[in-house]
From TrEMBL:
It holds the Pfam family DUF4932. Keywords: Signal. This is DUF4932 domain-containing protein. Residues 1-19 form the signal peptide. The keyword Signal applies. It comes from Chitinophaga agrisoli.
Length: 544
C-alpha cells in the first residue's frame, strides 16, 4: 500500500511539474528609468492565436518569425481552445478587448480578479471570460507554446538590446508623473512583435497598485528583427496610452451630456475610428490634447504643432485647441493645482463656449490639413523636364555671392535637362498662373517667397538649425531635394532644390540618390536621410 501511495505521489508531482513547465516563461525585459520594456509571452501567444485564426491585422514585418509560427502551430488550427477564442472574437469583441483580456491573465495564464466589465460583456459575460481563460491556457499547454517562446531567447534578446540602445535617453516616467502630479505602481511598454492593428493602453489593478501598459507595434524591421525606435509616432503612442490611465477615470465620473451636441459634427469620423459614444470621444480629445502638451515639453512648440496638432486635427479631433488652451492654464498654476485631478473640474467646461462658427472654422482646417487629396506624391525621377516646365529661382537671398552662385547653378541645371525651360523669379511666380505645368523651385525657404508661402503645409520643414522629416535633424548646412504637388494644380508636380544656406544649393546633379524618394537630405552631398511621404488617416507624413 505504501508503495502504491508513493507511486501516486510521484505521478502527481511529475504531472504538476509538467503542467507548471508548460506555462513557465523566461523573462525578457529591461528597465529604462522606471519603465519596463518587455516581450510578453501573453501578447506573443495572443499573436499566434490571431495568426492561426486568420485575423488580417498581423504586421508585414518579421517574415521569418511568422513562418516559424505557422510551421510550428498550424497543426493546432482546430484546437478547441483556439476555436473558442475565435468564437469570442467573432461575436464582435472590440479591437482592444481581447488584448486587455490577455493582460488580465497572470504569467501562468490564470485569470486575475478585477477584469473590466466592458471587456467581459463584449465576450459574452464573466462566465465566458472564465471559460476563455481556461481555453487559452489549454491551447498554450497542448501546443507547447512556452517551449517555443523560451527557445527564441536569442531572437528576443537581440530585439531588446537594439531597443535599449535606441531608448537610452528615454526618461518619460518622470515627465508623466510630474505633469499629472500622480504616481502609479508600474509602467510597462510591451513590444508587440506581430500585431499591426494598432497600439493599446490598458491598466491592471494589482495588490501593489495599478500597473500601466503601453502595448506598441513595431515601426519597421532591421533584417528579420522587428525594430522599435523613439520616433515622433512612438512618443505619441506612449504619451497617449499612458495618459489614458491618468485621465479616463476622471472623464468617466464627469457629466458630459451638456456638450453632447458637439458630437454630431464629427460623429461619422469618430465612428470610423471606433469611438461610438460621446463620453469616449471626450476622453479621446482630452488624452490627445494632453499628448500634445507633453510633446510640447519634449520637442518644443514648432514640432508639437507641425506633427502632433496637425495629426489630431486631421483626424477631426477638432476640439483639442480649447482643451490645450485650458491645459496651458493648468501648467501655469501648478502650485495651486499640484495634481491634474485638482484642476480637472476646470477643463471640460471649456467645451461649453464652442460655437457653430468655431466648428465651421475647425472643419475647414481639417480639410486644409488633409491636402493634397491625391493618391501619391511623385518622386524626382518621375518628373519630366519638358518645355512647359517652369523653374522658379529666389530673389531674396541674403548673401549676394551665394545668390550669384545659385543663379549659375539653376542655369546650368536647366541647360542639362532642357534648355527651353523658362526661368522666372519667386516674385514673378506669385503673380503667374502656373496651373498648367510642373514647376521646379530653387532657393532657401527664407530667400524664396514662393517657397516660403507654399512649403508650410508640407511634411518636411526647414529652420536655420533643423530639418524636420519624420524625425528631427540638427545642423546648419543641410541640402534638401523634395517633391510635392504644384500648389496651383495637384495634378502637376513641384520639385524643390533647397537648403538652409543658399551657398549650399550646388552640384545636386552629382547625386543619383536624390532621385529615388520624395525627400533627400544631405550635407556636402553625403546622404543623411531619405524617405517618402505616406498618407495615414488622410494626413501626409514623412517616413520616420
Amino acid at each position: 500500500m505504501k508503495k502504491l501511495i508513493l507511486c501516486l505521489l510521484v505521478l502527481l508531482t511529475i504531472h504538476s511539474q509538467r503542467a507548471f513547465s508548460l506555462t513557465r516563461f523566461q523573462d525578457f525585459s529591461f528597465d529604462q528609468k522606471g519603465i519596463v520594456f518587455s516581450i510578453d509571452p501573453r501578447i506573443e501567444l495572443y499573436n499566434v492565436m490571431n495568426m492561426l485564426a486568420g485575423i488580417p491585422t498581423i504586421t508585414a514585418n518579421a517574415t521569418a518569425y511568422k513562418q516559424e509560427i505557422f510551421g510550428r502551430f498550424s497543426a493546432y488550427e482546430q484546437h478547441p481552445g483556439l476555436q473558442f477564442f475565435i468564437r469570442c472574437r467573432m461575436k464582435g469583441w472590440g479591437v482592444d478587448n481581447p488584448l486587455f483580456f490577455m493582460l488580465q491573465l497572470d504569467k501562468t495564464l490564470q485569470l486575475q480578479p478585477g477584469i473590466d466589465p466592458g471587456v467581459a460583456k463584449g465576450a459574452g459575460g464573466i462566465d465566458t471570460i472564465k471559460q476563455l481563460a481556461i481555453a487559452v491556457k489549454q491551447f498554450c499547454e497542448d501546443s507547447y507554446f512556452a517551449e517555443f517562446f523560451n527557445a527564441h531567447a536569442p531572437f528576443y534578446r537581440m530585439i531588446l538590446q537594439n531597443t535599449q540602445y535606441h531608448f537610452r535617453d528615454f526618461n518619460e516616467r518622470t515627465r508623466l508623473e510630474q505633469y499629472y502630479g500622480q504616481q502609479h505602481a508600474g509602467y510597462n511598454i510591451i513590444l508587440n512583435l506581430l500585431e499591426g492593428e494598432g497600439n493599446f493602453g490598458p491598466s491592471v489593478q494589482t495588490p501593489e497598485g495599478r500597473q500601466l501598459y503601453a502595448v506598441i507595434s513595431t515601426n519597421g524591421s532591421q533584417g528579420d528583427l522587428p525594430s522599435f525606435t523613439p520616433s515622433f509616432s512612438t512618443y505619441d503612442l506612449i504619451y497617449h496610452e499612458f495618459s489614458h490611465s491618468f485621465i479616463n477615470y476622471l472623464v468617466h465620473a464627469a457629466d458630459v451630456a451638456p456638450t453632447e451636441h458637439l458630437w454630431e459634427p464629427i460623429k461619422q469620423s469618430m465612428a470610423q475610428q471606433a469611438y461610438d459614444n460621446w463620453l469616449t470621444v471626450v476622453q479621446e480629445h482630452l488624452v490627445r490634447a494632453a499628448t500634445i502638451r507633453l510633446a510640447t515639453q519634449r520637442f518644443g512648440e514648432a514640432i508639437a504643432q507641425s506633427y502632433y496638432h496637425k495629426m489630431e486635427i486631421g483626424r477631426r479631433f477638432i476640439y483639442i485647441d480649447a482643451l490645450c488652451n485650458r491645459l496651458q492654464q493648468y501648467e501655469q498654476q501648478r502650485q495651486r493645482y499640484p495634481h491634474f485631478s485638482n484642476f480637472f473640474p476646470h477643463i471640460l467646461p471649456c467645451l461649453d463656449s464652442i460655437t457653430q462658427q468655431d466648428i465651421a472654422r475647425l472643419q475647414a482646417l481639417v480639410q486644409q490639413y488633409r491636402q493634397p487629396d491625391v493618391a501619391h506624391i511623385p518622386i524626382p525621377a518621375q518628373v519630366h523636364y519638358d518645355s512647359s516646365m517652369v523653374f522658379i529661382i529666389s530673389s531674396h537671398e541674403n548673401d549676394e555671392t551665394a545668390m550669384a552662385g545659385l543663379k549659375a547653378y539653376v542655369e546650368q541645371y536647366r541647360n542639362m535637362v532642357n534648355s527651353r525651360i523658362n526661368i522666372i523669379t519667386d516674385n514673378e511666380a506669385l503673380k503667374t498662373d502656373l496651373s498648367h505645368c510642373d514647376i521646379m523651385v530653387f532657393g532657401t525657404p527664407h530667400g524664396n517667397t514662393f517657397l516660403r508661402q507654399h512649403m508650410a503645409g508640407m511634411p518636411l520643414q526647414i529652420t536655420d538649425s533643423t530639418v524636420l522629416a519624420g524625425n528631427l535633424l540638427h545642423g546648419r548646412h543641410f541640402q534638401v531635394v523634395t517633391t510635392w504637388v504644384n500648389p496651383a494644380n495637384p495634378a502637376h508636380t513641384m520639385l524643390i532644390h533647397t537648403a538652409q544656406q543658399a551657398a549650399d544649393i550646388r552640384n545636386y546633379f552629382y547625386s543619383a540618390q536624390k532621385e529615388a524618394h520624395n525627400y533627400w537630405i544631405a550635407e556636402n552631398l553625403v546622404t543623411i536621410k531619405s524617405g517618402d511621404y505616406r498618407r495615414m488617416m488622410q494626413i501626409w507624413f514623412a517616413d520616420e
